[in-house]
Write a structure and sequence with these properties.
alpha+beta; 24% strand; 10-stranded antiparallel beta sheet; TATA-Binding Protein; Rossmann fold; 20 strands; 508 residues; single chain
């Protein structure tokens, strides 16, 4: 864990009671509209395992992802506080406000308060805030009425719970006491209990003996199993995955072979990983082993849900995950929507899991990842994990919604414009090519406008950018290419990359 503050233990029953009392305000806040619109205190902290975070270059810029929440400022009385580790570029903020079609950027800017820690260290943002009494006071001073405010976070740990209690406002995210359902082990268990199919496998792997035993039993029960996947319980974006190959495994004496071959038969999703470092993390946080469904042409869709205190569990969107890395395990982008052959079924299964989570008291944004063995027929669906947090596909969907201002159809799984026309997108905040670090945020906007690729309210198509602050630092470009069909969205996405490549070459 990132620090001792991430302890899951309470100081006493009084703390638990205080937190629960704060949480009881949420239903009324979510029911408020118009002049009673609440204040959002947004803390986009990635309060995740520090060793896992170090695997992602420029991860601090992910704090910009939650700028899509500027859509809340459509309501004239709404206010938002947005707290980051380092000051946000003014051009980044202005662009985020301008990306919401019906938002008056100037009026919205007057109701947006930006605060920062002046600290770019890898320490979780929430922890930095808690250690800075002066910043806490500035946040409190900027909240007009704490009875009409709530805290929004990327994910939720005891740090976020502690911050909510320090500020005296409720937390709109999963109660950390319920977070075990979002680990790889806990997620598999909840999915099974909810009647959602999962791959054959084993949870709560805590030592080398348990890992070897799980790998042996998995192969023994599945003679055709050629590979297994090992996942760290608290990893994310696929960076904590490793693939074990049974190539060369003997017909007898499998346990001795697995034990002897374990380090060399594992291939890690993160290139910096070694058996020594990976094993240490696995023993510390636990993990799972499951069958690697090795089917040519399989797909990896996901369903986003939101559990709010008024409506309960609702499907937000489906999408196809675009995966990269040495073993194709690392999330690099997404396309919306998921394929029609299985879209309705993964919605149904994900909602079943969402309702089970809601029954436990879970709130906030989450997603359920799937694997479909036969995408053409839609057969062979297995749920892989539950992510009790916002993810890489959260911002793209809401950027689509902010630009198009239509509605998601629960019946068809399509996003429809106000005129009833479908819109699709291809998105990534990790598009990285040689020379992109030479580009400033203003440059890519100018390129898109000059080439006629930028989003147009007249056609409700075009490219919308996000996480623009990462561009000059890491060379990573974030964009959502919105079009009428998936094929057109892909062509638009590719055209933007081609134009950015050409601009980099001209700069030489």
């Amino acid at each position: 864990m990132a620090s001792g503050l991430l302890s899951t233990q309470w100081d006493g029953s009084t703390s638990r009671q205080t937190f629960e009392q704060l949480q009881q305000r949420l239903p009324a806040l979510f029911a408020q509209r118009g002049a009673d619109a609440p204040t959002l205190v947004v803390v986009p902290s990635l309060s995740l395992d520090s060793a896992e975070l170090r695997k992602i270059k420029g991860v601090i810029h992910f704090e910009e992802r939650l700028l899509f929440l500027a859509q809340a400022l459509r309501v004239p009385a709404a206010r938002m506080l947005y707290v980051t580790s380092l000051p946000l570029r003014q051009t980044v903020v202005d662009y985020a406000l301008g990306a919401v079609s019906s938002l008056s950027a100037g009026h919205a800017r007057s109701r947006l308060t930006l605060l920062d820690c002046a600290d770019g260290s890898p320490q979780p943002l929430t922890e930095k805030i808690l250690q800075d009494d002066g910043l806490v006071e500035r946040i409190l001073s900027a909240i007009p009425d704490r009875d009409r405010a709530y805290l929004v976070t990327f994910n939720s740990t005891p740090l976020e719970r502690a911050l909510a209690m320090r500020l005296g406002i409720p937390l709109y995210a999963c109660d950390p006491a319920l977070s075990s359902s979002g680990t790889k082990s806990g997620g598999r268990q909840l999915l099974r209990q909810a009647g959602v199919p999962v791959p054959e496998g084993f949870e709560d792997i805590r030592d080398e003996r348990g890992l070897v035993k799980a790998l042996v039993e998995l192969r023994a029960g599945n003679a055709g199993c050629e590979r297994a996947i090992v996942k760290l319980d608290d990893s994310f974006a696929g960076c904590g995955n490793a693939v074990f190959s049974y190539a060369g495994a003997p017909a007898t004496g499998l346990e001795s072979w697995v034990s002897a071959k374990l380090p060399e038969q594992l291939s890690f999703a993160a290139q910096s990983e070694t058996w020594e470092s990976y094993g240490a993390r696995l023993w510390e946080m636990g993990g799972i082993v499951e069958r690697f469904i090795d089917t040519s042409g399989s797909s990896s869709p996901s369903v986003q849900l939101e559990i709010d205190p008024v409506r309960g569990a609702q499907v937000v969107s489906t999408h196809e995950q675009v995966l990269g890395g040495a073993e194709g395990q690392v999330f690099v982008g997404c396309t919306f929507p998921a394929r029609p052959s299985y879209r309705a079924e993964i919605q149904r299964l994900a909602l079943r899991a969402g309702e089970a989570l809601a029954a436990r008291g879970v709130l906030g944004h989450l997603s359920v990842d799937f694997l479909v063995a036969n995408p053409v027929s839609g057969e062979g669906i297995h749920a892989l994990e539950i992510n009790l947090r916002m993810g890489g596909a959260t911002a793209p969907y809401f950027l689509l919604h902010g630009a198009v201002e239509g509605n998601y159809s629960q019946d068809t799984g399509e996003y429809l414009t106000p005129e009833g026309e479908p819109r699709c997108y291809v998105a990534s905040d990790r598009a990285q090519r040689e020379g992109y670090e030479l580009l400033q945020p203003e440059d890519v906007v100018d390129i898109a406008l000059g080439e006629g690729l930028h989003y147009s309210g007249a056609t409700r198509t075009g490219v919308v950018f996000y996480v623009l602050g990462a561009l000059p630092d890491t060379g990573k470009l974030g964009m959502v290419a919105i079009e009428k069909t998936p094929e057109k969205a892909q062509r638009l996405y590719d055209a933007m990359l081609t134009s950015a490549d050409a601009a980099c070459r001209r700069r030489g």
